[in-house]
Amino acid sequence: MKQQIPARTFMIILFWLAVWQLAASAIQNNIVFVGPADVVRSFAMLLPDLNFWQAVATSSIKIISGFLSALVCGTLFGSMAFCIPALRHLLAPLITLAKSVPVASFVILILIWIGSENLSVFISFLMVFPIIYVNTIAGLESTDKKLMEMAQVFSLNLPRRIRYIYLPAMMPYLINGCKLALGMSWKSGVAAEVIGVPSHTIGEQLYLAKVYLSTGDLFAWTIVIILVSAAFEKLFLWLLCRFSSLSTKRRFV
Questions:
Q1: Is 143 within 8 Å of 79 (Cβ atoms)?
Q2: Is 117:203 a contact under the CB 8 Å cutoff?
Q3: Which of 13, 20, 55 has its CA nearest to residue 39?
């Protein structure tokens, strides 16, 4: 059964590529819509260009920096809010605000306050922080009460409680939160770059593709975003799951 899955996936991809090509052939307008062959040509023209790699590297570094900063801060403040109910109530309006305010509003405010240079860093941070914060609290609240009672009976100190009880309880929620937050960070980060148009970024290239009505480049850059974000997501989640499996295997010894 396992051997049939790649073949089936390949056939599904071929089916949708055929649908894509048929739609492009029916429209017959390269400005409105392009087929997969045109996108492959655009992609092949981008690869040797040094500006292509510079844009990918710049955007990746900024968006990943925003994500990792939000991961650290969200976990830290979520843990503090779990331990200090007053802090949780104090932060509740800010978390609600961050979850409900449109990305475009944040983008405009940040452009006014600090400019476009590090725009994607802040936007990625703002989109990811509430997700990690909420999932951290949910994970800590799911801690097994019987394990806590046992830790109290054996006078387990705080570092050991964190290592052996709280961390294993929190990790599944943190992993699920990261699965959602990773996609959000790339979508919001690139969208912010398209609005702010910082130099040497993917967002700038998407904006230029729109200005010059280069739909092939637009599709090619979209595929680049998907590939880069998927690669980072796979790598990061693998590392996080690896860390989680190691932490849950440990015992009170």
A1: no
A2: no
A3: 20
Q: How many helices (H) and strands (E) does the chain have?
A: 11, 0
Question: Other C-beta atoms within 10 Å of 8: how many?
Answer: 9
**Same-domain check for residues 211 and 231:** yes
Note the pLDDT tens digit of each residue in 139-176.
999 887 777 777 777 777 777 777 777 888 888 999 99
In this structure, are 78 and 19 located in the same domain?
Answer: no
What pTM does this model have?
Answer: 0.88
CB atoms within 10 A of CB 2: 5
State how many domains the chain has. 2
123 and 185 both lie in a single domain: yes
3-state helix/strand/coil string of 11-40: HHHHHHHHHHHHHHHHHCCCCCCCCHHHHH
**Is the domain of 87 the same as that of 97?**
yes
Domain that residue 7 falls in: 1-32
Taking alpha carbons only, the member of 97, 176, 164 closest to residue 138 is 176
Q: Are 132 and 181 in contact (CB under 8 A)?
A: yes
CB atoms within 10 A of CB 89: 10
Q: What is the per-residue pLDDT across 54-70, written as a single tens digit (0 to 9) for each? A: 999 999 999 999 999 99
Judge if 27 and 140 occupy the same domain. no
Question: How does DSSP classify residue 101?
Answer: S
Burial class (CB in 10 A: 0-12, 13-18, 19+), 25: exposed
Asked if 16 and 69 sit in the same domain, the reply is no
